[in-house]
Amino acid sequence: MATPDELSDFLAQSERRAFKQAAYAVRDDHAALDIVQDAMMRLAEKYGQKPASELPMLFQRILQNAILDFFRRRKVRNLWVSPLSVFSNDDDDSDPLEMLAGEDDGANEPTQQIDRKQTMKLIEKALTKLPSRQREAFVLRYWQELDVAETASIMGCSEGSVKTHCSRAVHALAITLRAKGVSL
């Protein structure tokens, strides 16, 4: 059984990655914050008594379900609410996948930090152009550092599908980044 300190530490360590994962999926920072907060609350309320080793998988499943719920609610809402987009201002160029300020890569050279941040922005922009399943597989495997079986369980597909989605995502990202002059 996870102690309150273990649960708190897990949530603190997962917070930033979960936010990025939700932001990539829903492309709205405010909605992503709400989704992550709801997922954390559900984990604490319903599964806080589970062993600490089970928390990462449970949290990922809860987070994925919360993201799916967001899309379901939005779809239903869009069916019943009249489109108000004619009244909105299209001059908003904000990027919801903007790098989080204050993230330090440990490099001492300012040029290295700038290069890394620019590369991360290119990667994040390229991620937004991937199909949703490829993006989800890539984020879970390489940024959340889950293995193939865990990723397959969260995505609700076979391990072979996860490998295919990841391979296609990596290939597409490599082509996009190479075209921008980035060699990894």
Could you characterize the architecture of this molecule?
The chain is about 70% helix and about 0% strand. The chain is mainly alpha-helical. It has helices spanning about 5-25, 30-45, 55-80, 110-130, 130-145, 150-155, 160-180. Helix 1 runs antiparallel to helix 5 (about 130-145), helix 3 (about 55-80) runs parallel beside helix 6 and helix 6 (about 150-155) crosses helix 7 (about 160-180).
Explain the layout of strands and helices.
Elements: H1 4-26, H2 29-47, H3 55-80, H4 110-128, H5 132-143, H6 148-155, H7 159-179
Helix pairs in contact: 1-2, 1-3, 1-5, 2-3, 3-6, 4-7, 5-6, 5-7, 6-7
Q: Main beta sheet: strand number and arrangement?
A: none
How many distinct helices?
A: 7
Q: How far is the first residue's CA from the last residue's CA?
A: 42 Å
User: Low-confidence spans: pLDDT under 50, at least 5 residues?
Assistant: 80-105
- Using the alpha-carbon principal axes, give the shape: globular
Strand fraction: under 5%
Q: What Rg, in angstroms, do the CA atoms define?
A: 18 Å
Question: Helix/strand/pairing class, anyone?
Answer: mainly alpha
Q: Tell me the helix content.
A: 55-70%
How are helices and strands ordered from N to C?
HHHHHHH
For the secondary structure, the number of strands is 0
Mean pLDDT: 81
